[in-house]
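Dear Dr. K.,

Following up on our conversation at the group meeting, I've run the structure prediction for Large ribosomal subunit protein bL28 from Streptomyces gelaticus. I'm pasting the input sequence below exactly as I used it, so you can double-check it against your construct before we proceed with anything downstream. Let me know if the numbering doesn't match what you have in your notebook.
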Amino acid sequence: MSAHCQLTGARPGFGNTVSHSHRRTSRRFDPNIQRKRYWLASEGRHVRLTLGARAIRTVDNIGIEAAVARIRARGGKV
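The predicted structure tokens came back this morning:
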């Protein structure tokens, strides 16, 4: 599963882990990606979305219909 959110577009960030001796090694900051299944009443079917934790709260606020419209407006496939 790719580590990006379909709604917000959040992707991994990259940086360094800095040890006590100040040696730097590269690391990756992954978003909290989860797969959620929602009922899309307008199409009479379930949709499975790959969303970050913040995007799940956004779907709860604006509703699944508006969220799917935003995903499609970004060029995403639902």
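Two things stood out to me. The chain has two helices and four strands. The CA atoms of residues 15 and 53 lie 21 Å apart.

Best regards,
J.T.
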